[in-house]
Amino acid sequence: MISNFKKNKFLITGGNGFLGKHVIKYFISKKIPLENIKVPSTSTYDLRIQSDVKKLLKKGQIVIHLASNVGGLGKGLKKDADYYYDNAIMGLNLIKIGKDVGIKKFVGVGSILQYSSEAKLPLQENEILQGNPSGITAPYGLGKNVILHSSIFFKRQYNLDCINLILPNLYGPGDDFNPISSHVVASLIHKIYTAKTNKMKSINVWGNGMVSREFLFVKDAAEAIYLASKNSTKSFVLNIGSGKPTTIKGLAYEICKLMKYSGNINWESTKETGVLANFLETSLSKSELKFSCKTKLTDGLKKTINWYMKIVK
């Protein structure tokens, strides 16, 4: 455990994003002074440029790296080179320059998309670098895996304290509900709200509904990041989640039920949906961080829907 944890200085990249705002809120709830938390603005600091990163990093900081370049399936994922390069170089700059200036700890936050599509289920940490991600999200996953390799090498050579957290699909209040860039939970909520508002008898949903995914409420993710920042771990990477998969069909019908929408769902089975199933083995994070999810999916969906209904009215 890091001594005098609450007196440390924190740099949180991506702190103005969906997850970042919840992380800052959680840290403040744990009595971390707001003045001890620095959140770089993308308009001022470009993490791809070393000179900008050198201005940000200070000796003794705990660096929590949330920033990434990624979008939902609806975004098209047509910028493969950008997704790979941006995610890789941001992490490399923070780790290398962080080592040079003497940061106290690097906490990288990644995604279940970093696992190979051939990995056995549930996905275990010791397989994350066995094989490569594939499909339309491969450039993002490969770019983020550069950070995992860097953590291993810089820990081995320089004893830099690094931990990387692998998250499943996040959702919750404050999510991106833009139909072009949103992920599945926010996309479904927006679709169903639009259908109800316009008295539409059906909605269209990508895929056949049979793929399964794991979902994590954003507040639970924030707690895990806090614990990983504070505590020492034996592992360089930990899965964070419930370990429970849900089919997209089951998710869609649950949201319809919660939003009282009785229309039909038209499944667009020709659309790209990624791997058939994805969910995590989470026993390591339970033993090393004493972390377990507190929010059941239905409860998290209710909170997310309630928040969304307030902002659209």
**Known CATH architecture of the domain at 7-172 and 215-243 and 280-293:** 3-Layer(aba) Sandwich
Trace the largest sheet across and list its strands: 2-1-3-4-5-9
SSE pattern, N- to C-terminal: EHEHEHEHEEHEEHEEHEHH
Percent of residues in helical segments? 25-40%
CATH superfamily of the domain at 7-172 and 215-243 and 280-293: NAD(P)-binding Rossmann-like Domain
Judged by helices, strands and strand pairing, the structural class is alpha/beta
Q: Hey, roughly how much beta strand do the residues contain?
A: 15-25%
Text of the CATH class of the domain at 7-172 and 215-243 and 280-293: Alpha Beta
Any low-confidence stretches, pLDDT <50, length ≥5? none
Instruction: Compute the separation of the termini in Å.
Output: 45 Å
Largest sheet: 6 strands, parallel
Fold-level CATH name of the domain at 7-172 and 215-243 and 280-293: Rossmann fold
Report the principal-axis shape.
globular
What integer value in Å does the Rg equal? 19 Å
Number of helices: 9
Number of strands: 11
Mean pLDDT: 94
Notes on the structure:
This protein has 313 residues and is α/β, with parallel strands linked by helices. The protein has a domain of 209 residues: 3-Layer(aba) Sandwich (Rossmann fold), CATH 3.40.50.720. It has a 6-stranded parallel beta sheet, sandwiched between helices. Strand 1, helix 1 and strand 2 form a beta-alpha-beta unit. The chain is globular, with a radius of gyration of 19 Å. The model has no long low-confidence stretch (mean pLDDT 94).
Task: Outline the secondary-structure elements.
Blueprint: E1 10-13, H1 18-29, E2 37-38, H2 50-56, E3 62-65, H3 80-101, E4 105-111, H4 138-158, E5 162-167, E6 169-171, H5 184-197, E7 202-206, E8 212-217, H6 218-230, E9 237-239, E10 245-247, H7 248-258, E11 264-268, H8 283-288, H9 297-312
Parallel strand pairs: 1-2, 1-3, 3-4, 4-5, 5-9, 6-8, 7-11
Antiparallel strand pairs: 8-10
